[in-house]
Amino acid sequence: MPTLGGYLSRILDGKKKGGQLRFKQNPQIDQCRTNVILIFRGSFNPPHRGHLALLFHAYHQLCQDLNIIAAIIRPSHDDRVRSKYGHSSETEHLILPLKDRARLWAEDPHFPPWAWVFTDLTDKSVSYLGKELEALAKKDKCRLRFAHLMGPDCIPGQMTDFNTMTIISNVAREALYEDQGVIHDFCQHGFEPWAVDDKAKVGRQNQPAHRVDDSHRHGCCGLPTTDLSVQLARLGASRSVHICWQRDKTREKSLRFLQSTTEQHTPFRGISSSGIQKLIHELRFGQDELKVALQLAVLSPRVLWSILQSTKLQRNESQETDLLKDTTCGDGEQEVSANLPDGGLPSNISNPVPKDAGTKRKASETPEDDNDADVPNSQKSRDRRK
Fold this sequence. Notes:
Layout: H1 4-13, E1 34-42, H2 49-66, E2 68-75, H3 78-85, H4 98-106, E3 115-117, H5 126-139, E4 143-150, E5 165-169, E6 178-179, E7 182-183, E8 195-196, H6 228-233, E9 240-247, E10 252-259, H7 262-265, H8 273-283, H9 288-295, H10 301-338, H11 377-385
Helix pairs in contact: 1-5, 8-9
């Protein structure tokens, strides 16, 4: 039976056998059903528990209905993250490199075995990867589809041609188009009214809880963590799943909204990357409050803490280097000025002509005429009368 890891090795490593191990549990591709892969894109600067909750909630809610076999997480490139913050200085916003953001995802003890972080630095985009996977599956007479996972701030207008199936949820953030349990329609974007998806009510009820390695129970600096595995185990059984469609002559797009319960979303609401950035900026990398805040919010808090300490050390070294340059430059200026003649310039350099010195010298004038430049006018008159 073909596997998703085997397909990825053929595309990215150029190997039919072997290649890089990308999944803890290599997802098998069912030849009798359409296999759906979640695509989760974002800045993830840094990734936090809300991101993980959204991933778990979508997978366990729809894995049976849609036959979701895996998830591919795609952090944005560094340039895209920088453009997100505009002209803000990097002292106000810590911009983590792509490799660090991917590491925070992959090294978290709760990272699921059916997910993989795509960090290819070449021009291979998610859409390219999807087309290559579909082509390989077609040769094996298998079917693949991709469902794009987004936060509730997504609007249907952001869906591309490649993005024909989208899943959104309010488990980690409140949806602006949800009012007291009522979801507003997206008719202005060409979508039909919302309808309850009865097939998805099975959810995670028959799914085993995700197990976590007990050796990682303690986070950074030995601080005990809240039991995130218990909170994640509550996910995947939404209060309801709504679906709406956009149909035309060539293709159809579907949008699913996973409505979470209060018990499900309470531990994750209020966590955001921008809020974590603010904490890091205000607490200045070194206080105990920051350790606790990171422990309760981000993925792989121990790893992020070491990154912050390294960043702090690099900034201190940079500041010391700049200070040393300024000190050296100041001493050098004093030494040079002490060896200059009274005019302030070396004896072999002529005094510069002021900008208002008058017109250019005529051809008939000789260099000797400049000798009168410092003679008083009265003395010049007496010399002429003589």
